[in-house]
Write a sequence for this structure.
């Protein structure tokens, strides 16, 4: 009974102490300058109990964590840091900084650093036992999200990082002295020496960025660390695990590329060590090292691609914890992303396993997100061959993007990206791929941050098979667009209009028909002088497509607008041309500028008085277009249209670029049918002017040309030399 009473009393006392420390932390957080008089005493209190013999036998873990958080908050507090220009700092800041500087002397900092590394960083018997019995759970517990605030180990590491960053010039020599003391072989019977080495290596990894100029890591890797990885003694497992983690920390900081083959060879050996894989948490550190190395460079990795990918896949199958599977999948995704098409010979095993893993992860949405990311990179790596994944891939996309299904909350963003890359790499439109678009209407109604990807998906369908897609979904799509345009940002409005523009470009006949309900608002926007240049530019791009590529539909639209506005048809046409000419500077894309010139020129030859009245503006736009697209051949002195494409060239990618997708190829083929890329603006102007001259006769034509500025006429004549 007395023992029970003593425990109850101790519990109450500990809770009271923690409450007091929490009040102190909250006070510091909310009122840093009011806390200034307490800085000295708070630091003395916390450091004496945590980093001297004063606390031995009486402190408890939660109290140590609170004290470390208190020290960390004082060290990092921006209110206590003077500006580079001292004169810009407030007196309160300078006072607090003075107190901090007076406390953190060299002996104090050295003792804190040594105690953190040689006492708090040491793995405990409980941790070693947990590592042996359940390594994956140990990994998850050790790397938990906000655990630094509440758990001792991550809290000590965060404090070490912050203090080392703040006082690195003082502490670097202290840590380097510890490293030098570890040179030479370690006695396998001396568990304490092994744990000290693990702790020091941990500190060097955490301080990697601060030690950049102080450590020759390449030499250390070659002369010591590589040998440490090759020690096979069972008691040395903590060091092998720590060394590969240490390399992973440094590889993005300071590691020569020509050392990578030695590193990859060591990693391969570690992954092949089944005892290591089963009995310790090395898999995470090994895969981290692969990931960090690939982020920096995939140089030399290709020769190890097959064994690495195979071993990583085996590891994915063997691990059981959801978090570990996610981590290994993340590294596999990185490998696939970096090597791209070169992954194709090795992915069959993964392709066969992913459906099973997807089914097993039904209750683990974050693991499913990792699977989606892996599928994204797989599809990009497989290109057109990704169609073989459709039996698994399309139902996954269907579920992930269905807002009526609860998992969409977690899966939607990655699901949309997977949907998009699937379309971009699809060689043809299948009925199942078309059917998935039924999910889009609800997605557009959400008006969420995912709208941009939704528009990209819609465009991808248009490029893939405009006729089948528009005939099936254009009505619903048009209705959704009309609702969206009532309440959407300018950027969103442009995205909607670009879909319409692409539809008109890809399918000049069907496009205007299916999006007819949207075109009157585009027409009104032009003649009313839309105030946003980017919107006006898109309006003119749409109208340019209709006028140039479907003149009969333009005539119908013009008649409709005349009726709606109660104005004469010619008056409406004149207003449109006048605003088009006036706002031409809103168009910045060379393709649209050439399109505008071609579209307005298509109104010629004409006897219409309104068109003749706007002739000067049409010629001005045409000459501007010539300046945009014509380049001079230095050898012949003649001009040529730089936008002309005469044959299909397979899009090529440099070593730093991703290979062209099927959609890239479709866009190239589309360009070969686009007047912007097939019609010479120079030739088109000449033919239209000649036809106008023949229609009016020489005298009438000259009178028309006299309405054009003489300088513009001179530029036009220079461009048309040789015709």
């Amino acid at each position: 009974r007395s023992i029970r009473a003593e425990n109850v009393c101790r519990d109450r006392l500990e809770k009271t102490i923690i409450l007091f420390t929490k009040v102190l932390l909250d006070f510091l957080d909310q009122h840093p300058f009011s806390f200034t008089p307490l800085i000295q005493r708070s630091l003395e209190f916390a450091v004496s109990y945590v980093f001297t013999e004063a606390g031995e036998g009486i402190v408890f873990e939660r109290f140590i964590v609170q004290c470390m958080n208190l020290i960390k908050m004082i060290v990092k507090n921006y209110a206590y840091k003077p500006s580079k220009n001292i004169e810009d700092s407030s007196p309160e800041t300078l006072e607090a900084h003075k107190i901090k500087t007076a406390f953190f002397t060299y002996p104090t900092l050295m003792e804190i650093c040594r105690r953190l590394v040689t006492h708090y960083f040491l793995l405990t018997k409980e941790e070693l036992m947990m590592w042996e019995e359940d390594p994956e759970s140990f990994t998850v517990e050790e790397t938990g999200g906000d655990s630094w605030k509440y758990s001792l180990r991550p809290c000590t590491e965060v404090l070490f990082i912050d203090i080392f960053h703040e006082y690195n010039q003082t502490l670097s020599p202290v840590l380097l002295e510890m490293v030098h003391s570890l040179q030479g072989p370690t006695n396998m019977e001396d568990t304490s020496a092994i744990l000290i080495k693990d702790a020091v290596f941990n500190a060097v990894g955490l301080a990697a960025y601060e030690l950049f100029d102080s450590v020759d890591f390449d030499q250390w890797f070659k002369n010591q660390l590589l040998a440490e990885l090759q020690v096979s003694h069972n008691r040395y497992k903590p060091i092998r695990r720590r060394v590969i983690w240490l390399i992973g920390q440094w590889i993005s900081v300071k590691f020569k590329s020509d050392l990578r083959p030695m590193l990859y060879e060591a990693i391969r050996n570690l992954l092949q060590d089944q005892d290591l894989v089963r009995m310790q948490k090395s898999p995470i550190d090994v895969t981290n090292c692969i990931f960090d190395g690939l982020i920096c460079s995939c140089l030399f990795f290709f020769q190890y691609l097959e064994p690495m990918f195979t071993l990583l896949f085996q590891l994915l199958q063997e691990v059981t914890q959801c978090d570990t599977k996610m981590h290994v999948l993340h590294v596999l995704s990185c490998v696939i992303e970096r090597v791209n098409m070169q992954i194709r010979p090795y992915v069959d095993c993964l392709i066969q396993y992913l459906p099973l893993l997807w089914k097993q992860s039904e209750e683990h949405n974050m693991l499913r997100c990792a699977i989606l990311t892996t599928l994204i990179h797989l599809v990009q790596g497989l290109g057109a061959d990704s169609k073989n994944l459709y039996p698994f891939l399309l139902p996954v996309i269907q579920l992930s993007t269905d807002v009526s299904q609860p998992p969409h909350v977690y899966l939607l963003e990655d699901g949309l990206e997977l949907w998009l890359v699937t379309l971009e790499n699809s060689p043809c439109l299948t009925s199942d791929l078309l059917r998935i678009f039924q999910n889009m209407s609800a997605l557009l109604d959400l008006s969420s941050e995912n709208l941009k990807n939704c528009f990209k998906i819609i465009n991808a369908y248009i490029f893939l098979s405009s006729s089948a897609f528009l005939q099936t979904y254009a009505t619903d799509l048009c209705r959704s667009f009309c609702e969206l345009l009532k309440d959407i940002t300018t950027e969103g409005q442009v995205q909607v209009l670009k879909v319409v523009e692409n539809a008109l470009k890809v399918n000049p006949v069907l496009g205007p028909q299916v999006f007819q309900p949207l075109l009157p608002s585009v027409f009104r926007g032009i003649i009313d002088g839309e105030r946003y240049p980017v919107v006006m530019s898109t309006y003119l791009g749409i109208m340019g497509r209709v006028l140039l590529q479907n003149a009969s539909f333009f005539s119908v639209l013009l008649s409709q607008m005349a009726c709606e506005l109660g104005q004469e048809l010619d008056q409406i046409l004149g207003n449109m041309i006048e605003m088009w000419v006036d706002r031409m500077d809103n168009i910045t894309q060379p393709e649209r500028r050439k399109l505008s010139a071609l579209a307005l020129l298509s109104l010629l030859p004409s006897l219409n008085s309104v068109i003749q009245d706007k002739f000067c503006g049409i010629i001005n736009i045409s000459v501007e277009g010539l300046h945009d697209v014509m380049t001079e051949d230095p050898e012949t002195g003649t001009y040529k249209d730089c936008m002309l494409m005469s044959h299909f060239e397979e899009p090529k990618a440099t070593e730093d670029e991703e290979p062209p997708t099927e959609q890239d190829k479709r866009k190239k083929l589309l360009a070969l049918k686009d007047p912007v890329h097939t019609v010479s603006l120079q030739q088109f102007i000449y033919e239209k002017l000649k036809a106008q001259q023949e229609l009016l006769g020489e005298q009438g034509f000259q009178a028309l040309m006299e309405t054009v500025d003489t300088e513009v006429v001179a530029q036009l004549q220079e461009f048309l030399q040789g015709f």
Observations:
- The chain has a mean pLDDT of 89.
- Strands lie at 630-632, 639-641.
